[in-house]
């Protein structure tokens, strides 16, 4: 008798919950995006010369203020990425919420560093998709 594999790889954690490949992908991408946001925040707090200041933009805030926002949000995103390795539902919900907040912050950050902001918005979109995708043994083939 032949068995059919769905192609979903699952590892078991201590609590017995399974962590699928997409959850691991989202965890790694959140850690990567969080560390990038931390570096972005440090550079903005130091008021580095790589940033462009745009006049008459809707979100008028100082560069140091944006830096603190990205630094704090980057730390929270990184911690949420590590929490996703537990495979619990609360970690998935927190991950989706924090990735959404990070996407909004990077959208507002577009005038200062467009390439970096777009890159992090794409990373956040992949994280949200990976955490919302239904994968695992309960999914019908």
Please write the string of helix (H) and strand (E) elements. Answer: EEHHHH
Terminal CA distance reads: 18 Å
Mean pLDDT: 80
Estimate the strand proportion. Answer: under 5%
Report the helical percentage: 55-70%
Structural class: mainly alpha
List the helices and strands and how they pair.
Elements: E1 10-12, E2 18-20, H1 21-45, H2 63-83, H3 89-108, H4 114-132
Antiparallel strand pairs: 1-2
Helix pairs in contact: 1-2, 1-4, 2-3, 3-4
Structure description:
The chain has 141 residues and is mainly alpha-helical. 60% of the residues lie in helices and 4% in strands. It has helices at residues 21-45, 63-83, 89-108, 114-132, and strands at residues 10-12, 18-20. Strands 1-2 form a two-stranded antiparallel sheet. Strand 1 (10-12) and strand 2 (18-20) form a beta hairpin. The radius of gyration is 18 Å and the shape is elongated. The two termini are 18 Å apart. Mean pLDDT is 80; it is low at 8-16.
Fill in the keyword field for this structure:
two-stranded antiparallel ribbon; 4 helices; 4% strand
Quick overview:
By secondary structure, the chain is mainly α.
């Amino acid at each position: 008798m032949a068995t059919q594999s769905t192609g979903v790889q699952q590892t078991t954690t201590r609590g017995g919950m399974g962590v699928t490949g997409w959850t691991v992908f989202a965890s790694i991408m959140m850690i990567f995006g969080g560390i990038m946001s931390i570096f972005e925040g440090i550079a903005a707090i130091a008021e580095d010369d790589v940033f462009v200041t745009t006049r008459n933009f809707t979100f008028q805030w100082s560069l140091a203020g944006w830096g603190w926002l990205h630094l704090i949000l980057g730390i929270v995103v990184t911690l949420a990425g590590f929490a996703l390795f537990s495979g619990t539902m609360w970690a998935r919900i927190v991950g989706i919420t924090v990735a959404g907040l990070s996407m909004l912050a990077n959208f507002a950050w577009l005038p200062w560093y467009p390439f970096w902001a777009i890159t992090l918005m794409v990373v956040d979109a992949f994280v949200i998709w990976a955490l919302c995708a239904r994968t695992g043994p309960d999914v019908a083939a």
